[in-house]
Amino acid sequence: MKKDKLTEYIAAVLLAASIVSLVFVFANANISHYTARMESDIASETLLATVLYENNFIQPDSWYASTAIRLISTPNLAAFIYPLVGCDANLAMGISCTVMMVIMLVVMGLYCKQTGFPVLAALSSILLVLAFTKPSDEWQRMIFVYASYYVSHIITLFIILMLYNRAVRKQKVEFWVFTLSMLVAVVNGLQGMHGCLFIYFPLLGLEIVKRVIFRIQTRKLDRKHIFTWVVLMIAVSIIASKLTSSNNIGASRNIRNAIPKFREEVWLSIVDMVALDNYGTLRVVIIIAAIIGYLMALGKLFGREKEDSARYSVLLFPAGFVVSLLLTTFTTVEVAGRYFLMLLFTIAVGNALFIMNVKNKSIKAFVVFISIFGILQASVFNNELVAHDDSEHLDVYKVAAWMNEKGYEYGYSSFDHANCITVMGNNTAKVRAVNNMKDMNGCKWLTDVTWYPPVKSEEGPTCYVVTDYLAQDFNEFMDRVEPEVLETAQVGVYTIYVLDHDYTVWE
């Protein structure tokens, strides 16, 4: 007995050490190496934080968002941190990503505890969420590093699941539970349709499947108002999304080409995200364990023995993956690895279920195996995200450095380069996006009206940053406007033209 306790304690310590190692690596990447994998979309989130700060922490009408407003996100938190760190936008965003990541892991841990996961199972699931990714892949950028686009949705996912667990255990939706869940649904809806994709549609699917199976088995159903509550959360979230036009996913039905799309795009994206080229054998073992874990859980949940009603919530994660699978296959929506984020949590929770349900002393060896996988991944992530940070040698960084050295504050380029150059220079050299280098109209995508004339002054030297593929458009602009060129410079792949004033217009 004592030996078993000692073994369990050692396994728990190894899991905890792996988790701390991974969190430290991600924190270091965010705070000290924020620009290591910089690109335009991440840079836009960083600049949004400064816009929020300058507008009393509210997203202004002057900001051209992608598809939603931000209420609870890393840029919102970064806006509060920004003045506390000397108006260092990169540091503020790095700290914000790290804090949100830790909050997510804590809330996930609370969910595991409420659902009745043993310590080893809970720690294993948290570790695998951190470790079963690739350096700077879409899953990492969604919840851990640089922008953490979906971390607030995952935090609210676990909050809603804990409220759902409470409701099904008590067989009633208490007033405070109803009020809090509706508030969360409104916030998620205002921030886009991702709340429905990751939380509400899968939860509704879970409720429907559970009720159908219970009816077939002639088992007692949950009270009807629980189902009604779930439907109301979906309705409120969708209505809220329409208030900001954040429900526009730009997709239509794709029934006829569904199979080719699944074979040529969806399946390949899933394979890419599970990353079998990185410790592939270990990953296959973990995936198989997750499948077995869920099969064993299904046998118990829908078997003859009575299970804790809260345990049914673990089925939301594979349900979320199925919803994403159907969405990307049977509609024309783009296929992106980030939409399959629930697969990551399915694998993590599936392994927790495997550890819970396998009644064998050797299961602790499997836990040690997961710990070793976590430590190996921490080394890989540290090598890729921290040790190999070559951002100071990138051309985008050199452009910002050149502008600072010459004393030029403003410039323009295409969206692919503009915000990225700005953030690489930590917002000291402000390069804004234009739709194209021919017309020089301000880009209405993740930009702010106040960055452009006539709100911004046209006076003063202005840099126009051009690459080879932008050169033809820029030459047409030069022929049409015939501006005065103060100087030119070649910085890596970029040619910088310094014109006598700002020729860009907001139309």
What is the ordering of alpha helices and beta strands?
HHEHHHHHHHHHHHHHHEHEEEHEE
Largest sheet: 5 strands, mixed
Content of β-strand? 5-15%
Shape: globular
Give average pLDDT, whole number.
92
Q: Write out the strand line-up for the largest beta sheet, numbering strands in chain order.
A: 3-2-5-7-6
Share of helical residues: 55-70%
Poorly predicted segments: none
**Radius of gyration (Å):** 25 Å
Number of helices: 18
Question: Mind sketching the topology for me?
Answer:
Layout (H helix, E strand, L loop, with lengths): L1 H31 L7 H15 L8 E2 L9 H8 L7 H27 L3 H13 L6 H6 L7 H20 L4 H16 L3 H23 L7 H20 L14 H17 L5 H22 L14 H15 L10 H17 L5 H25 L7 H12 L3 E5 L3 H7 L5 E5 L12 E2 L13 E5 L1 H14 L3 E7 L2 E6 L8
Parallel strand pairs: 2-3, 2-5
Antiparallel strand pairs: 1-4, 5-7, 6-7
Helix pairs in contact: 1-4, 1-5, 1-15, 2-3, 2-4, 2-17, 3-4, 4-5, 4-7, 5-14, 5-15, 7-8, 7-9, 8-10, 9-10, 9-13, 11-13, 12-14, 13-14, 16-17
